[in-house]
Every structure is written in C-alpha cells, then in structure tokens.
Amino acid sequence: MPSWSLLPRRALAAFAALALALLGVLALDAAPAEAVRPPGIPSTATAQAELNALTVAAESHGSSYDRSLFPHWKSVSGTGSCTARQYVLKRDGQNVVTGDGCQPTSGRWQSDFDNTWTTTVSNATIDHVVALSEAWASGAWAWTTAERQAFANDINSPQLWIATTSANSAKSDYDPAEWMPVNTTGLRCDYVKAWTHVKYLYDLTVDSAEKSAIQSHLTNYCGSTGGDPTGCTGSKTTAAAIPEGPPLNSTITLSCTGTASSSGRITVSVTHQYSGDIAIALIAPDGSSYTLKSSSGSTTPNVNTTYSANLSSESRSGTWTLRVTDTYSGGSSGTLNSWSLTI
User: Fold this and answer.
1) Domain match, 60 and 206 both
2) What is the pLDDT of residue 34?
3) Please, what is the angle between helix 208-221 and helix 44-53, to 10°?
4) 1-10, 128-137, 299-308: lowest mean pLDDT where?
5) How many domains, the chain?
6) Are 78 and 4 in contact (CB under 8 A)?
7) Helix, strand or coil, per DSSP, at residue 265
8) Which end of the chain is flanked by fewer CB atoms within 10 Å, N or C?
9) Are residues 197 and 154 in the same domain?
10) Domain range spanning residue 257?
C-alpha cells in the first residue's frame, strides 16, 4: 500500500497595507479577467476512458457517514505547514497576502461555479468536487482514516475548488445527475472531467444515474462546441529570456480544421523572482487578444499555471502568439521556459 499522505489511490508584501484595507468587504465581479482551475483536469479522451472503467454500483452505508471520519484541512507536506485550504486559496487566488500560519488575510478569488469574484476571505470556501459524503457512499466507507484524510486534503488532483459560500451551499453533496454549475462558459466540461478523474483516482463507484448524466455532459459540453478537443495541440519548449519593458512574443503554428474551443487551455511556465511583474496574453491568428494574467503586486516567484480561455470565435488554424511582458523595469529578469495550448 503506497503512502497516503498526499497520493490518491491510482495516482498513488508591497501591497499588504492596501489589501488589508479590503478586509471585511464583500466584492463580486461577474466578469472575471482570468480563470485558474485546479491541477490535473484530464483531456476529454482520458476522462471518457476513465468513465468507462468506473464500476457502476448503488450507493451504500450512507446512514453511517460522519464528516469527522474525513480529517480535513490538515497540514500538507511540501506547503510550508499550510493546510490544504490555505494552500489552495494562495495557489489559485490573486494578490493573496498571508499572515501567520499561512492564513490568507486578503486577496481576490474566483468562484468558477457561479462565475464570480470575491475579496472576502471568509466567502472564499474550498469545495470538495466529489463531496465527502458522496465518497463515503461510493466506497470510502471501507477506507482507513489515513486514506480518507488523504482524499479530503488532496491538493494534487482536481478535487479542491474555490467556491463562494452560496455556490458551495447550492452544490452541497449532489452528484452531476443532481446538480451542475450555473456557469456554462467552458466550465461544465472541466467540471465533469474533474469529477470523473477524482472518482477514477480513488477507485470510487458511480451509480447508474450518475454515470448516465456524466456521459451526457461529456457529450454536450466537451464536444465540438466546447471542452478539450483532441488533435489540436501545440507546444514550445525552447526557453527564451523575457526583456524588461517590450513584450516577448513566442509563437506556435497550428494546422487544424474548424473553430477553437470555448474552453481552450494554455499552460505557461515562467521563471521570475516576482510573478506579479509578469503579464501574459494569448494572441489569436486574427490578432484578437485574450488576457491570461495581469500584472499585480504579488511577490511570490514564478508562474506555472494552466489558464482557460473562451476561443470559440477563433479559427484553430494559424499562428498563435503568447505575449509575455515584464512590466517592471530595473528589477529581476525572467525566462519563459515553455508554453502549450490545446484548442
């Protein structure tokens, strides 16, 4: 049996004062500038194969579920003694300022389920995409406490999502046959792929209605009008220095038929002492610009993120440009290590 400290079953403060002034204020923005989703969301083809491999069985042992059986929000190794909740808030938020013990004191967080932003820490909850009670009734009732703790604090799979209090409450412990995110802009495809992947990683079962719904959602939301289409990807792995001031333009040329996805995925790796100095945009072959990351006051290093962008108005074929700008002159230099896109 592998270690369960982190691994799933199958995958075995320059602006601190200004940010603190926002504490206690609730701010929601229905038009976020960028989306950061949890890691490990598979391709549509992989999710389909994983769904096909899941065991179909009725849920059981529901009456014996207790949330305390899943020790959650525990310190996670490799995060500087941060809890899983604190780590995800810092990882997936913007301009996050932390106090003692890793606890975020201010920042900006996107709730992808309802397509809103919040600047109130207490309103940025962490949702288990496969709820703990759902996992219990799907097989976790037979796990050890250590296995359940690993599941409840898994920062490496797409299990933990930032959600506003209201979105988290609306989702509750429902499965995809009972609830789907109200945000339809490229999110539902990733949501069902994430759900399927987590169930597969942990050898959890699906009931018949759940599997039918997931299949329907994969077909409807991950088809030609959205999701993660196969056969149209590109990457650039040659490192390039990022100058201060003028942008670095790195190109990938694709030859694919049809239009791009409403949930295009762009993965970027940048080395820089201050990630807040870096602004990133994707330029389509027709010259349209899509902001992936704006500059900010963040003092955390490096950018290693997969961004989502609605590219459904674009033709896939042509030269795509990643424009990386170091917005601060006289500071640290940076490097674009690699980038890739799936459209």
Assistant:
1) yes
2) 52
3) 160
4) 1-10
5) 2
6) no
7) strand
8) N
9) yes
10) 233-342
User: 244 with 159, same domain?
Assistant: no
Q: Is 129 left (phi over 0), alpha (psi -120 to 50) or beta?
A: alpha
Residue identified by tokens 């691994």 is 7
Crossing angle (nearest 10°) for helices 187-201 and 208-221: 140
Written as six digits, the tokens of 128 are 């288990």
Residues 199 and 246 in one domain: no
- Higher pLDDT: 7 or 186? It is 186
CA-to-CA distance for 171 and 156, rounded, in angstroms? 22
187 or 151, greater pLDDT: 151
The answer to whether residue 8 scores a pLDDT higher than 70 is no
Burial class (CB in 10 A: 0-12, 13-18, 19+), 288: exposed
**Do residues 151 and 255 share a domain?**
no
Residue 139 backbone class (left: φ over 0; alpha: ψ -120 to 50; beta: rest): left
Is residue 73 a contact partner of residue 222, using CB atoms and an 8 Å limit?
no
Task: Count other Cβ atoms within 10 Å, centred on residue 15.
Answer: 15
The proportion of the chain whose per-residue pLDDT surpasses 90, expressed as a percent, equals: 57
The answer to whether the beta carbons of residues 19 and 211 sit under 8 Å apart is no
pTM of the model as a whole: 0.62
- Enumerate the β-bridge partners of residue 281: 291, 323
Only one residue has tokens 């603190």, namely: 20
Task: Check if the beta carbon of residue 311 is closer than 8 Å to that of residue 262.
Answer: yes
More confident residue, 7 or 131: 131
Q: What pLDDT does residue 16 have?
A: 34
Q: Quote the CA–CA distance of 321 and 333 in Å, as a whole number.
A: 21
Residues contacting 313, CB < 8 A, separation 6+: 259, 288
